[in-house]
Structures are given as structure tokens and as C-alpha cells.
Design a protein that fits this description.
17 helices; 74% helix
């Protein structure tokens, strides 16, 4: 790989990273395209081959690949301080916007017009998630084995309520052991490229970032104890950060079901609202976790009060969600060539990506049931544990708005922000006229 044609000053890197952070709408594809235009095409800070090599590396890691790509490029240009600047500036603008939206959400949640507005937002979310399913599926399911992996993952999650981490990690193990041709990979010997990085440096980096990751959790433990909601929030989202392979959509169903059904931090409708809000903000879609953490802290803040607990929950969730991203980049970036040449690792990632399609299908169906039906129960029959809507509770307004959103998105290719605006307006009209 060639070195950057032009090495920017640290100040230039900060300015451009801030610009990218505020303009990074449209999900990972749009964010990566924006970075490519700004950093490869216009400024030539990194070459095309190097950019794609780094992107492939980030796909190997848990967490939002676009944010990790920004961190990697910053690290390559200006070391750790460059990685911190680029990575933080990719997240902070969206996090600030999301916090402001969460504050506004709880302030207006009891108003009738607000509920009507979000009726349209939730309906649009169904179409957006289905679009993500089609895009990822078209890219990932290139062999019959991969399609079988996707279908098996969907059945395991939707029909049998299998644990999400087990499904994801199991798919990775199966892929690592499967013949390469089943996964559409070329059967070739593993190659080791470039000088071997020093293991002790990697271990030291891991230890340092584990301490950074754990620091606020230690503070919560000492000041508030394990019974406080912030401890449970931090622990849950720390665990989530380790298994977020395949992008935000892959983990949202698991997060939503755990936050709604197990921890009771918010309702299913509020979870859909949070995803709609996250779609309107710059930065990674996984910032929806911040919304969940805010509502959990707001409702169970204890000595911190509602607003103090909500803000603390949002900040803690953001910290434990993104601190691991810096750990992965700073620890493993020196190993990038060796990691990408490992055949078994490639096989595991290919199978995991296929399983993610089934995971997103589960998410799509879960959101559709929660939005389109006022009452959704559970069917427990032997090994089967699945959702079962009460058909009489079908909300025709949500169904009509979801159909409209699908037409606008798939037929007329309307952008996400415009789609959400049109759907919200439609929800306001139907929700107030037929309350």
C-alpha cells in the first residue's frame, strides 16, 4: 500500500473530521462515501487501495465500521492523537444532537400531537429497516450455504428466542470451519504480509484501553453500587459492544428485546421512536443506544433525579459503546495485513455476515409487529417461543403510513430524512384526525 500523497497538519485533520462528523447522515454507506470523497478524492490524504484495505479491516471488528474507519485514518495520519480526534469528531456531533432530541422527547411525550407525529416516524422505520435487509442480503448472500445460514439465524432468533451472542458467534465458528467455496472464498494458503508487530505493545494498548473503558463503571460502582440503573445500563451496553458485528441493524433487535422485555427501560413503541430519531442525526446509527440509556436513567435515576439520571445514562452508554472502538483500532491496526490474510478469519466473517441478514430479518418483523399492532403477545409451545399479535388490534393508520413509506422509499427513492419528514406529517394528520 502506498503512503498518503499529502500529509495534513493535525489542525487540518481536526477541521475536516469535524466537517465529516456534522455531515455524516445516511448510514454507513453514505458516511463511507462522504469520507472517500473528502479524504481520497478531494484531499488525497490516503490512497484508494489503502482506503479499501482499511475498510476491509474495519469490517472484521465489532462496532460501527464507518466510525472505526475514521479512527483508523486519523491514526494512520497522526498516530493516537489523530485517531482520537477523527474518531471522537465522528461521534460527538451526532451524540449531542441525539441527547437534545432525547430531552425534547421526554418533555413532549405526553402531548397528543407528539404521539401522532411519531406514529408516522415509526411506520417509516419499518420501510427503512426492510431496505437495509434487502441491501445487506443482496451483498452478502452469494452462495446457497450463506442463504441457509441467514435462514437458520432468522429461525433461531424469531421462533426459538436463541441468545443473539450465541447465534452470531456460532455463525462465525461455523464459517471458520466451512470449506472456502461454500462461502464464495478462494481456497488459498494463509499469507503473512509485512513485519510482525510487537505483541507486548498490543497487550499494553489493550490493557490501557480496557482501563479507559472500565473507568466510568468503576465510578458508578463506588458511588452508586450495583443496584443502581446506571450499573445495569453500563454492563449491558459494554457486553453489547463486543458482539456488534454486522452493523447497528444486526444488534438492534437483541438490544430492543432486552431493553424492553428484560430490563423494562422503555416500551417497544419508544424503541421504534428512538430508531427514528437516530436516523435523523449525523453519526453512527448505533447512537440509538444513547436514547435507551437516557430513558433508563431518566426513569430510574434515584439520587441523581430524572434529568440527572437521564443525562448520566446517555453519557455512560455512549462511553461504553464507543470506547471499545478505539481499543480495537489502536490495538489491532498494526496487525491489519496479517488479520486480512487469515483464511479462517475471512470464513468466519463471511458466515457471520450471512447470519446478520437473518438477524436483520428478525429485527424487521419485530418492529413491524410492534408498530402495526396495539397488542403483541407471546406463543410458548415446547421449544418455540415467538411473538403472536392480536390481529384485531391492527392499527390501520400505521399500516397505511408504512405502505406509503415503502412506496416513497423503493419506488421514488426518497432520501431517509425526507421520508421521515413526510411520514411524520402523515402521522400528524391521521393521528389527530382519527385519534
Amino acid at each position: 500500500m502506498s503512503e498518503p500523497a499529502t500529509v495534513p497538519s493535525f489542525g487540518e485533520l481536526v477541521r475536516v473530521s469535524a466537517r465529516i462528523g456534522w455531515l455524516s447522515f445516511g448510514g454507513p454507506a453514505g458516511q463511507i462515501a462522504l469520507m472517500h470523497r473528502e479524504l481520497v478524492d478531494e484531499r488525497k490524504w490516503i490512497g484508494e487501495e489503502h482506503f479499501l484495505h482499511a475498510l476491509n479491516f474495519c469490517h472484521l471488528l465489532p462496532g460501527p465500521e464507518a466510525q472505526q474507519l475514521a479512527t483508523y485514518i486519523g491514526w494512520k495520519l497522526h498516530g493516537v492523537k489523530g485517531g482520537l480526534a477523527a474518531g471522537l469528531l465522528f461521534v460527538v456531533p451526532g451524540a449531542l444532537v441525539m441527547l437534545g432530541l432525547a430531552l425534547a422527547y421526554v418533555s413532549a411525550a405526553q402531548l397528543g400531537w407528539f404521539a401522532a407525529l411519531f406514529l408516522g416516524v415509526k411506520a417509516a422505520v419499518i420501510a427503512i429497516v426492510v431496505q437495509a435487509l434487502i441491501r445487506v442480503g443482496g451483498r452478502a448472500l452469494t452462495t446457497g450455504f450463506k442463504r441457509g445460514m441467514a435462514f437458520a439465524a432468522f429461525l433461531a432468533l424469531f421462533l426459538f428466542s436463541a441468545p443473539f451472542p450465541l447465534v452470531v458467534l456460532g455463525a462465525g465458528v461455523i464459517g471458520a470451519l466451512a470449506p472456502p467455496q461454500w462461502l464464495g472464498l478462494k481456497d488459498q494458503a494463509e499469507a503473512h504480509v509485512g513485519p510482525r508487530p510487537r505483541v507486548w505493545k498490543t497487550l499494553a494498548t489493550v490493557a490501557a484501553w480496557l482501563a479507559v473503558w472500565a473507568a466510568p463503571m468503576v465510578l458508578v460502582l463506588v458511588l452508586l453500587g450495583q443496584e443502581h440503573v446506571l450499573w445495569r445500563v453500563g454492563l449491558f451496553f459494554s457486553q453489547l459492544a463486543v458482539v456488534t458485528f454486522g452493523g447497528a441493524y444486526a444488534v438492534l433487535a437483541y438490544m430492543a428485546q432486552e431493553a424492553v422485555s428484560t430490563h423494562h427501560w422503555l416500551s417497544a413503541g419508544e424503541m421504534a421512536d428512538g430508531l427514528g430519531l437516530a436516523e435523523t442525526t449525523p453519526g453512527p446509527l448505533i447512537l440509538v443506544t444513547q436514547f435507551v440509556g437516557f430513558l433508563a436513567g431518566f426513569r430510574e435515576g434515584g439520587v441523581l433525579g430524572s434529568w440527572g439520571g437521564g443525562i448520566a445514562g446517555a453519557l455512560l452508554t455512549t462511553w461504553v459503546t464507543f470506547a471499545p472502538c478505539f481499543l480495537w483500532i489502536f490495538a489491532f491496526a498494526p496487525w491489519i495485513d496479517r488479520l486480512q490474510s487469515a483464511r479462517r478469519l475471512k470464513g468466519g466473517l463471511a458466515a457471520l455476515t450471512a447470519a446478520v441478514v437473518g438477524v436483520i430479518a428478525n429485527l424487521s418483523l419485530w418492529f413491524a409487529l410492534q408498530v402495526l399492532f396495539a397488542r403483541v403477545g407471546k406463543l410458548d409451545a415446547g421449544p418455540v417461543h415467538t411473538l403472536l399479535p392480536e390481529w384485531i388490534s391492527f392499527d390501520w393508520r400505521a399500516g397505511l403510513l408504512a405502505a406509503l413509506a415503502a412506496v416513497l422509499l423503493f419506488r421514488f427513492k426518497l432520501g431517509v430524512l425526507k421520508l421521515l419528514a413526510v411520514s411524520a406529517a402523515g402521522g400528524l394528520v391521521l393521528g389527530t384526525a382519527f385519534a
